[in-house]
Amino acid sequence: MLDEYQHDDFEVVRKDTRFGGFEELKLRKENATVSLFLILSVSLTHISLSMDLERLVMKDGCSGALYPMYTRDGHRWALMSVPAEHYASTGLSDGGKSVTQTLLWKDRQNSREGIGVWHVGNYAWKLYSAKNDSQRKTLEKLREDYRRANARGLPMGKPRFQDGTIKQGNENPYGGMALIVDWFEGTNFNFHKPPKPFKSALEAQKISHSKSSTDYKRIKAGCESAKTVGLQDCQGYVKAGRYEPIVFIDVHTSWNAQQKKFGTSQQAIDMVDVITKWGTES
Q1: Are 89 and 62 a contacting pair, CB within 8 Å?
Q2: DSSP state, 67?
Q3: Choosing a second label site near 32 at 20 to 30 A (CA), which of 60, 107, 244, 282?
Q4: Cα separation, 18 vs 29, whole angstroms
Q5: How far is CA 86 from CA 49, 64, 160, in A?
Q6: How far is the C-alpha of 41 from the C-alpha of 10, rounded, in Å?
């Protein structure tokens, strides 16, 4: 399996149905509590969910590790580890149990697509209604858009989705979904009317003109990813000095299911042009 661990070195602590199903493990050795381990059987059916779990474990601040995939009992397995002190920040420690998140209407920020957006700790929660088949199909398409964009490196604040039930006041509960991303403060840009120009955001954040600077390289890479996925209605935030100095919000790609390829986005093309011209120093 691995130079460091063998399949039988672990015992299963619990099983979780999220992300296509995974198991929480612990080493059989005494006092082996430094890290928690997660293992899942990888299949083509759940490969995108497996990638979502990997990104969650490997996110900033968690110091997660991914070990080489191996085959046993006719299955392909992926083993991940995360330091015990960081496990709570992955959101996995609730064991998949029902959790209630109270969001006050007075704290709501308007959303053109969803019920609203809330600032919850270090995260932004955007709620969507899933009362009927039409809404559920729309949300599934949204999930797939985010997965495709994520796979191509579009910076979006480490998005994840949580299905659940929404209850507003005395109304009967109904199906819903939360899109949860890192809370991001910076200079907003969009192509609305009137627009908030991307170049103005670069200026406001005093982004370096040096092509070798970290901010410049990451912003340019983000814009190129937006171009790759044909990002529609390009909008987001720029913030100098962050790991993701640019993030895109309300993501919609131009994926064509029939042709199985992305279309083009003039907005994303223009953003690439702006950031390319911004780099005037080596």
Answers
A1: yes
A2: P
A3: 60
A4: 27
A5: 21, 9, 18
A6: 15
Token pair of 98 as six digits:
């029902």
Write the single-letter amino acid at 141.
K
Q: How far apart are CA 184 and CA 177, in angstroms?
A: 20
Can you read off the two tokens belonging to residue 268?
């994303």
Are 207 and 239 in contact by the 8 Å Cβ rule? The answer is no
Residue 245 has a CB neighbour count (10 Å cut-off) of 23
Give how far Cα 114 sits from Cα of 108, 110, 250, Å: 11, 8, 10
Question: Could you tell me the two tokens for 76?
Answer: 């392909």
- Burial track 63-93 (b if 16+ CB lie within 10 A, e otherwise): ebeebeeeeeeeeebbbbbbeeebbeebebe
pLDDT along the chain (282 residues), means of 10: 68 77 75 64 56 66 68 78 67 64 91 92 92 91 90 89 85 90 94 96 98 96 97 97 94 94 97 97 88
The predicted model scores a pTM of 0.69
Reduced to 3 states, what is the DSSP secondary structure of residue 208?
A: coil
Can you tell me the distance from the alpha carbon of 101 to that of 207, in angstroms, rounded to the nearest whole number? 37
- Mode of pairing for the β-strands spanning 10-16 and 235-238: unpaired
